[in-house]
Amino acid sequence: MHPILKPALRRGWHDLNTVQFGMTPAHAVVLNPVDTATGTFMTLLDGTRGVPLLRDEARRMGLPDGHVDALLDRLAHAGLLDDATGGGPPAEALRRRSQVMDRLRPDHAALSVATSEPAEAVRKLAARHSMRVQVRGAGRVGAVVASVLGAAGVGHVDVRDGGCVEPWDVAPGGQPVEAIGERRDVSARRVVRAVAPARPPRPDRRRTEPHPAWPEGGEPPLSLVVVAPRDGLAVHSPDPVHVEDLMAAGIPHLYAGVAEATGVVGPLVLPGGTGCAHCLLLARTDRDPTWPRLLAQWRSGRAARQIQACDLGLATAVAGLAAAHALAFLDGELPSSTGARWEASAPGLDWHARPVRPHRECACGAGERGNGQETSVEEGPHDTMAG
């Protein structure tokens, strides 16, 4: 182990014996007491020395035996210590690719702030390289989500969509102007490749048997699907039919999009564990028996062909939040969109979460695990004609 104080956390001294690591309340840690000799010794925790050499340096500074080990334990317990050489073979392989690592250094720094164990950040960053995410939708939201995931080190980002890029699909970080007229999925995949810090790992074509961890004929299994439809209705009131394959295969999926100047991120659906699109549909129908009739009208021809209300600033915010939630899930956490929808509407843009609980009558089975609770749904429209 080569201990290093997490560089992403800024340090400041309250007084001669009290040091604070980090600025923000979510991650700041205050250590006290820290004597002057220990404070000086901590400047040596820069990742260039192993523990034996640090013990030797401590002795030369007059620190007692055992002081280094006790200090390292204290720093590790506080979540302040990283390991410049840890993380196993995948992490070491990532460090050797200096150009790739340089691209990902801000991501590594952010992961180090949000994790506690030494070398956990680089381990998670290296794990992203072998993961596969599918993005369904390549409009103003979906194409940006795909490019952010690719740039953040997710090795396999597959984009699915139909039709060709229209002028209104163009967005910073997403579909470029020069792609107008090209197939949406082809253009979005090219954008992902252009921003990815490294090419995804390729299967060994010399193998006569499938890779034990890649059962789909040369591709890793899907870790997550981001459902980012260009049609606002499809994210406001998602059709369960469109994700039947994901529910059957138990593949987690996250909804994201813009509907009539309202941005939506979530729910992140864990099949069989959290509320799904069908749970949402059943609960809305419970509240309003005319809901299926409204959906049938909204999904009918003419309205679906109209240009969608999708403000570029809101769409970019939705894409960024969705990508952040997706990365948190891929890194092993459950973001706040798990079983909930985050929404923000213009012009106030006040983000708030609405829970999506399992419905007891849904065939997904999550309602049985949730003691038959029904899904909470958002308030209905304001009836300005009511007396």
Number of helices: 15
**In total, how many domains does the architecture comprise?**
2
Could you list the spans in which at least 5 consecutive residues all have pLDDT below 50? Answer: 204-214, 372-377, 382-387
User: What class would the helix/strand composition place it in?
Assistant: alpha/beta
**Average pLDDT over all residues:** 89
Could you describe the 3D structure shown?
The structure is a single chain. The chain is α/β, with parallel strands linked by helices. It has two domains: 1-121, Outer Surface Protein A, domain 3, CATH 3.90.930; 132-207 and 215-369, Rossmann fold (3-Layer(aba) Sandwich), CATH 3.40.50. It has 15 helices and twelve strands. It has helices at residues 36-41, 51-60, 67-77, 88-96, 98-114, 120-128, 142-151, 184-195, 232-236, 244-249, 277-287, 291-298, 301-304, 312-330, 366-369, and strands at 3-5, 11-15, 18-21, 29-31, 81-83, 132-136, 156-160, 222-227, 253-259, 262-269, 340-345, 352-355. The strands form three sheets. A seven-stranded mixed beta sheet has the order 7-6-8-9-10-11-12. Helix 4 packs across helix 6. The longest helix has 19 residues, at 312-330. It starts with a strand and ends in an 18-residue tail after the last helix. Residues 204-214, 372-377 and 382-387 have low confidence and may be disordered.
Write the layout of secondary structure elements.
Elements: E1 3-5, E2 11-15, E3 18-21, E4 29-31, H1 36-41, H2 51-60, H3 67-77, E5 81-83, H4 88-96, H5 98-114, H6 120-128, E6 132-136, H7 142-151, E7 156-160, H8 184-195, E8 222-227, H9 232-236, H10 244-249, E9 253-259, E10 262-269, H11 277-287, H12 291-298, H13 301-304, H14 312-330, E11 340-345, E12 352-355, H15 366-369
Parallel strand pairs: 6-7, 6-8, 8-9
Antiparallel strand pairs: 1-5, 2-3, 3-4, 9-10, 10-11, 11-12
